[in-house]
Amino acid sequence: MESNNLDVQILDYLSNHLENEDNHFFSAKIAILDTIGCIVHASSYDNVHSFAAGETSVEVFNNPFKTVKNFNSILDSTWYLTVLTRWFDYNDTFLAKEWGHPSDNFGTIYTYFQKNHNYKFVDFTTALTKAYEIQGSLCLGTSLNKLGFDHVFFVKLASGSVFSYLLSGGNSDILKRTVNNILMDGPSLRAYRHFPNVGKRKSWAAADAAKRGIELSQISGTEDEIYDTIQNQEDWGFENTFMKNSGLSFGKDLDDWVIQNVLFKVLYPAEFHGQSAVEAATQLSSEFNQNRAKLDKINVHTHEPAVRIISNKKELKNASDRDHSLEYMVAAALLYGDLKYEMYEDNFSGLAEINELRKKIHVQEEPKFTQKYYEFSKRHISNSIEILYNDNTRSEQMTIENPIGHPSRREEAIPLLKEKFIQNVESIFSLKKANHVWNEILNLKKDDDVAQLFSILIEDE
Prior knowledge:
Elements: H1 6-15, H2 21-43, H3 46-53, H4 64-69, H5 74-86, E1 94-95, E2 99-100, H6 106-115, H7 121-141, H8 152-168, H9 172-185, H10 201-219, H11 238-242, H12 257-260, H13 275-290, E3 295-302, H14 304-310, H15 319-322, H16 326-336, H17 351-358, E4 361-365, H18 367-374, E5 383-389, E6 398-400, H19 410-424, H20 431-442, H21 451-458
Parallel strand pairs: 3-4
Antiparallel strand pairs: 1-2, 3-5, 5-6
Helix pairs in contact: 1-9, 2-5, 2-7, 2-19, 3-5, 5-6, 5-10, 7-8, 8-9, 8-10, 9-10, 13-16, 16-17
C-alpha cells in the first residue's frame, strides 16, 4: 500500500474484489450464525431487549429479526442489533496489539441489506468480511489501549466506511470524507472497562460506535471538504492529537484473512484472554473438588496481556467486572466444572464461595506464552493451571495452548458452535426450527438473493 492514509487504503480495498471468495464464504456463514445466536439469546431477557429497543414504537415480537424489520431508522436498527450482539460478551473476538469483536459490525451490514434487497447473498458476506478485515487489521497494527482509548473506535471506522461505500455506490469522495470525519470524531476513553469504573457501557459501546459511524457516513454524503490531511496533519491531526505522533496503521495487507482467523467464544461467556484458563480449570474441577480440604493455592501461568487486562482485581463490583476477572473465571470453573453468565450476577448463590476461592489464585506471566501470543503465525492464547495442596502434593499442570475457539481448532469447534447456536435460539425456535435455520443458512449459495437470509430468520415454523 503506497499511501499510509486510511481513507486511501480503505477506498482501494473496498473498490477491489476479493480474490479468494471461497476461502472466506464458509467462515462468513459461521460468523453470521454465531452472531444470530447471540442476538436471539440476549433478546430473550426483557430488560436487555427493552434497553436495545429504546424509545421506538415498533411492534415487538419474540423473534428480534421480526422486530427489527419494522424499524424505520437505520440508526435505531443498527443500535438494536449491535446491543443484542454484544450484551453478554459471547460474540466472536480478535486479539492482537488491540482487541476487539468484529461481529460488532454485523448489525450495520444486516441493517443495510435488510433495507436494500437488490443484492446477492455473496454481497452480504463480502461486506461483512471487509468490515471484519478493516477492524481486525487495525487491531494488528495499532494499539489504542496503551494510550487509554477504546477499541470500539475501530468498529466506528469499519462499520462507517463499509456502510458509506454501500450507501454511496462506491463514491470515492464520500467514502474518504466518511473515513476522515470518523477520524475527526476521535476515539472514546476505555476507562469503563477498568476498575473502578467498570460498568454496562461495555455492553453498548460498540452499538454506539457503529451507529455513529453510520450517522457520519450519511452526513458525509453532503458536498464538503474531504479533510484528507486530518490523519497526519502536524498541528491538529489525529495522530498528533490522539496517538502521540505514532502511526495509525493496518498490521497486514487487506484481504479476507481476519474472518477466517476470528476467535469464537464456543463454550464460555468469558473475556477471551482467559478462555483457555477456563477450559483448563474445568478439566481440573473434579480433582479440585475431591481435594478442597487440603488446598493451599492455585497457580495460573498466562500471557502478559491477560495479566494487564483481566488479573489482579481486588474488588469486583458487578457482573461487568466479574466477567473480566481471570481469577473469578478460574474459581467459578474449578468449583462448578463450567462457566455460565448467570455465575457473574449479583444474585448467584455461589458468589461468596467464588470470591473466597479467587483469593488463593496467583497469576503470573509465562514469557513463552507472551511470545507466542504476539507471533503472527501462531497468535496463541495460552494458559496453564496447577493446584498446590498443603501436604506437598500438586495436581497435573493443565496447559491449554489455544482454547476451543481458536482457528487452529476450528474443525473441532464447528459442532460445538452449532450446539451453542441451538441453545442460544431455544427461546424462540424449536429444536427442529433451530436445526433448519442453521442448515439453511449454511446451504445458502453465493448467487442466492440476500432476501433469502431474512426470510429464513423470520418465517414461521
